[in-house]
Amino acid sequence: MKKLLGRLASGARRAANPAAPDDAAFFTTRFDEADLPGAAVDWADRAAAIGAEPIDRSRGLALFCAAWERDHHAIRLAPEEVERLAARFSFVSVPAARDVIRQDERGAYLLWVLEGTLAVERVQPWGGRARLAEARAGDVLGEMALLDAGGRFSTCATLQPCVLAVLDAAGLEELML
């Protein structure tokens, strides 16, 4: 969607002033997403690769509802509405030192941290690794790549065992219907 809107906007600018330079890449901080290899990574594939295990649905739901209530930016929903939303998520436990999201892969899921801590890091062009943040309970990771099917900006790795709520593309589509 982002690429489509960008193409439409740049086409309109060029039509208005054909001599104007195409400066769409002026503020770019990453490589062109067309260089990204392959299809989007599905959660089922990643879960199998990192040893993620499903947790009891009632425990996951309780953690999800508690996280929703703690977030003062969240829309105030009735408990049954939060449960309807949570029905589209799966709940998993992930061991420490596992990459749940990898930089530059195409994303097909988002993660909501319910317990634990994850490192959010970006490998720089010269090879250095920069820690951008640490994600904790209530933080959402990977939402932009899910929404625009673009590449992931950073790698997110568990620093300790974590419990995550996972929403994949199919679940997001169901929520939008």
Instruction: Please indicate the percent range of residues in DSSP E strands (runs of 2 or more).
Output: 15-25%
What's the gyration radius in Å?
A: 18 Å
Report the order of strands and helices.
HHEHHEEEEEEHEEH
Q: How many beta-strand runs?
A: 9
The N- to C-terminal Cα distance equals 18 Å
Mean pLDDT: 84
What strand order characterises the main sheet? 1-2-9-4-7
Shape: globular
How would you characterize the largest beta sheet? 5 strands, antiparallel
**Class from secondary-structure proportions:** alpha+beta
* Structure annotation, total helices: 6
The residue fraction in helices comes out at 25-40%
Sequence stretches where pLDDT stays below 50 over 5 or more residues: 11-15, 20-33
Oligomer: single chain
Keywords, separated by commas or semicolons:
177 residues; alpha+beta; five-stranded antiparallel beta sheet; four-stranded antiparallel beta sheet; 24% strand
Can you describe this structure?
This protein starts with a helix and ends with a helix. The protein contains 6 helices and 9 strands; from the N terminus they run ααβααββββββαββα. The relative contact order is 0.19. It has helices at about 1-15, 45-50, 55-70, 80-85, 145-150, 170-175, and strands at about 55, 90-95, 100, 110-115, 120-125, 130-135, 140, 155-160, 160-170. It has a 5-stranded antiparallel beta sheet with strand order 1-2-9-4-7, sandwiched between helices. It has about 180 residues and is an alpha+beta fold. It is globular. α3 packs across α4 (about 80-85). The model is unreliable at about 10-15 and about 20-35 (pLDDT under 50).
